[in-house]
Design a protein that fits this description.
140 residues; 2 domains; globular
C-alpha cells in the first residue's frame, strides 16, 4: 500500500463512527497533538506503514488496519461498527453455525460493545476472531 491508499482508508474510517469527522474526538482518542493529527490529513505529508500502525494501536484498532485494503476481509467493518446489528451480521457470517462456544464468546463481546469506551477493544477482538474464521474458510 502507498501513502495515498492509507490516507484514503484513514479518511473513510474517520468519517464514520465512532469519530464521525470530529478531529477533537480523534485527538482525545489517539493522544496525538492537533499538529500531528493534521499531518494525517495533509496529502503533502508521508503516511507510512509505521505511522499507520502507531495510529491504529493508539485507537485500539488492529495494528494493520490502515495498511490493509478495505476489500481484504469482511471483518474490517467491525473496527467501527455502525450498530450492534451490523456487528452481529458479520459475526453470523463468519462463525461456524455448529460452534456454540464461539457463538457464546461472540455474544459476550457484543454485550460489552454496548458499554461506553469498550467499542475499540471489542471491535479489535471481533476483527481477530472473524479474520481467523475467514482464514479457516479459505484454507478449507
Amino acid at each position: 500500500m502507498n501513502d495515498a491508499d492509507r490516507r484514503a482508508l484513514f479518511h473513510s474510517w474517520f468519517a464514520g463512527p465512532p469519530m464521525r469527522g470530529d478531529r477533537e474526538a480523534l485527538i482525545r482518542a489517539s493522544g496525538y497533538t492537533k499538529g500531528r493529527i493534521s499531518q494525517f490529513f495533509d496529502s503533502d505529508q508521508q503516511f507510512g506503514e509505521r505511522a499507520a500502525r502507531s495510529l491504529a494501536g493508539r485507537l485500539g484498532l488492529p495494528m494493520e488496519f490502515f495498511n490493509t485494503p478495505a476489500s481484504a476481509t469482511p471483518a474490517r467493518e467491525l473496527a467501527s461498527p455502525g450498530s450492534l446489528a451490523d456487528a452481529l451480521r458479520v459475526i453470523d457470517q463468519a462463525l461456524d453455525p455448529l460452534d456454540s462456544q464461539a457463538r457464546r464468546i461472540a455474544a459476550g463481546l457484543l454485550v460489552n460493545l454496548e458499554r461506553p469506551g469498550n467499542a475499540p477493544m471489542v471491535a479489535s477482538l471481533l476483527f481477530a476472531a472473524t479474520e481467523s474464521a475467514h482464514s479457516k474458510r479459505l484454507a478449507a
